[in-house]
Design a protein that fits this description.
By secondary structure, this protein is mainly alpha-helical. The protein has a domain at 46-109: AF1531-like domain (DNA polymerase, domain 1), CATH 1.10.150.280. The chain has 4 helices and 2 strands, in the order αβαααβ. The protein has helices at 3-20, 53-56, 64-77, 94-103, and strands at 46-47, 108-109. It has a two-stranded parallel sheet. The longest helix is centred in the first third of the chain and has 18 residues, at 3-20. The protein is rod-shaped. It starts with a helix and ends in a 6-residue tail after the last strand.
Length: 115
């Protein structure tokens, strides 16, 4: 290409960039008192009669050994009749059960199977 054409293209690009540039992004409106509401992601419900060790470990405050103890208890004694029956699992006392309930509000379920 010839030098005048390259110069003309360069000048066109430069003028376009300057014309499109602004001091502040258009999406920021400092004069408005608009508030943004954030919705927390809903965590899935964990059925203690069906959950694997990994799924049980998603409950806040329940580590691998306690999750494994829950699964082993369930295999040895059958399904839990209610969440409060977790207290029968070795290593889960009243304090831990209350902590699990408080930290996982609405996430711990005890559903009976259809068999």
């Amino acid at each position: 290409m010839s030098k005048p054409i390259i110069t003309a293209i360069f000048c066109s690009c430069l003028v376009s960039c300057v014309a499109l540039a602004s001091n502040e992004p258009a999406s920021l409106d400092h004069s408005s008192n608009a508030q943004v509401a954030y919705m927390p992601l809903k965590e899935p419900v964990v059925d203690i009669n069906q959950a694997s060790i990994k799924v049980l470990m998603t409950l806040h405050g329940l580590a691998e050994k306690k999750a494994q103890a829950i699964v082993e208890y369930r295999q040895a004694h059958g399904e839990f009749s209610g969440v409060d029956q977790l207290i029968a699992v070795k290593g889960i006392g009243k304090k831990l059960l209350e902590k699990l309930k408080a930290n996982n509000s609405g996430r711990i379920a005890c559903k009976a199977s259809n068999t």
